[in-house]
Amino acid sequence: MSHFVVSARKYRPNRFEDVVGQEHVSQTLKNALQTDHLAHAFLFCGPRGVGKTTCARILAKVLNCQNISADYEPCNECESCKAFNVNASFNTIELDAASNNSVEHIRALIEQVRFQPQQGKYKIFIIDEVHMLSQQAFNAFLKTLEEPPPYAVFILATTEKHKIIPTILSRCQIFDFRRIQPADMVAHLESICVQENIKADKDALYVIAQKADGALRDALSIFDRIVSFSGHQITYEDVINNLNILDYDYYFQVVDSIISEDHSKLLLLFDTIMRKGFDPDIFINGLAEHLRQVLVCKDPDTLSLLEVSENLQERYRQQAAIAPTRLILTALNIANDCDLSYRLARNKRLHVEMTLIKMAYINRAFRSRQVPEQEKKTPELNEVATNPASKPIAAAVAPLLTANEPPELPFQKQEQVSEPLEQAEKSKLPESVKPQKHSIAKLGSVSSMLQNIMAEEQLQQGSEVSELSLENIQMAWKAYMDTLEQETIKMHLRNVELRFVEGRIEAIVGSPLAENTIRQELNLMEFLRQKLQAPNLAMTIEIDKSKIATEVPKKKRILSPKETFLQMESVNPNIRALQRAFDLRPEE
């Protein structure tokens, strides 16, 4: 049995030009070598598997190469390069800070800095996962890092730059490594397939690149796993089966069913996906990503954001040509809401099925909102009117849409959930088809803002508003009082003097208590605006000081017993006869 070497080690770059997706770092380091502006300390930051340690090792090899090339690449033939390739170089010291993170380990490293290199010009110290060093170890390392000997070069690598103390960052030249793009990964995997005599579908390599999430080392590990599974022939089906990824074709069928309003086929497709063992949340997230790809294809300028093969790009373009933009945006909004509330749903499958049904009725909800009020009873909508099962669904989708604008944000549509709920209750349907309230709090201010905007648009369009007069206002005021039950509030409203000045109501009250009472009647202005058909009607409340009582009541004096008796006698003279009969002495 031969010794197998994983692709991540076997095809590890030995030259700067072989590093994938980090040209900005490679070119900067080569220019620094060319102009002799090499720093004494470097910090390589970035995600896992993007080439930080690889670039550190190549730089260490170049610094001591005896036959450096014209483009400042290592020759890999001199004694120094050969020793480095077999990990026998005494001038390069690698330290794993994850397991050597104490002060003692840093002190041992500082002791090694004191000794000059045995051969070559530089002694290079590569510290991987440097963010794992303790606070005390960082402090012990500061002085040496700031003023090292001229032959010492420090290369630090980390995936978590924010954990490194600022005093270390200020002493290093920082290079930020970026995630590797899928196209670069696919090109690298294709070159490996040529060297290993492996035939691979380009769609399969793109799936591997996307699964790696920007890390080339992860892509190579997945590649080795797929090769072990399928041998020298890698197909798209082998990759999605081995990586447990849902086929693109399912998402294309789902979107086609949404466009054709075929909710039965949607439920059957979802059942097939569930039988294959995929979780509902994985499916809904994949559907949202697919809708995003379709939306990207709507504009030629954004086609560069599509990270798929050429065959799939053509399929996305074909579907984008028949899918309306407002449908895609609304479906994305519904999928996002489903993902946000998925964790709170008890019946996960039903939660996703209701989401798919809502998506199937998007076009119908758009059509129903575009029909004028007097033409709502059209043959096109007779199916919704006569089919009881479709009423709550259309009512649940309708608040999410507008006739000519993209869908509202999630927090904007919460105010409109109550109407479909009432319709569902009236239809007496089971709970499974009733729209559910979300846990997001309602925002009354957003609703009032939208009402004001709509009212202003109506006024600008010349909508008819009834003529306002003081008599109409008084009648509406009295009608509002008739709706109240509390006599105290009625009394305050009854004693108000109403005026109509410059298009607004002036309410004159006689006390601060009356003013506060009227201000707390939040439904008053809404009632008056609807009654008078004046959406922008405003009211000011003023206190008339002349109506406030200014006389201070005199303080009553307590009467003596004799004064009380005399006052009673003035009212009833028979009190005196009673006093004599019983020998009473009130004057004492």
Number of helices: 28
Structural class: alpha/beta
Spans of 5+ residues with little confidence (pLDDT < 50)? 372-447, 460-466
Overall strand count: 10
- Regarding quaternary structure, what we see is single chain
| Cα end-to-end separation | 131 Å
Strand content: 5-15%
Major sheet summary line: 5 strands, parallel
Characterize the overall form. elongated
Radius of gyration: 41 Å
**Average predicted confidence as pLDDT:** 79
> How much helicity do the residues have?
40-55%
Arrangement of strands in the largest sheet: 2-3-4-1-5
Secondary-structure blueprint of this entry?
Layout: H1 7-10, H2 23-35, E1 41-45, H3 52-63, H4 79-85, E2 92-96, H5 103-113, E3 123-128, H6 135-146, E4 152-158, H7 166-169, E5 173-176, H8 182-196, E6 199-200, H9 202-212, H10 216-230, E7 233-234, H11 236-242, H12 248-259, H13 263-275, H14 280-296, H15 310-322, H16 325-341, H17 348-360, H18 362-370, H19 382-386, H20 390-397, H21 418-427, H22 444-460, H23 470-482, H24 487-494, E8 497-501, E9 504-509, H25 512-519, H26 523-532, E10 538-543, H27 561-571, H28 574-581
Parallel strand pairs: 1-4, 1-5, 2-3, 3-4, 6-7, 9-10
Antiparallel strand pairs: 8-9
Describe the structure in brief.
With 588 residues, the protein is of the alpha/beta class. It has helices at 7-10, 23-35, 52-63, 79-85, 103-113, 135-146, 166-169, 182-196, 202-212, 216-230, 236-242, 248-259, 263-275, 280-296, 310-322, 325-341, 348-360, 362-370, 382-386, 390-397, 418-427, 444-460, 470-482, 487-494, 512-519, 523-532, 561-571, 574-581; strands at 41-45, 92-96, 123-128, 152-158, 173-176, 199-200, 233-234, 497-501, 504-509, 538-543. The chain has 28 helices and ten strands.
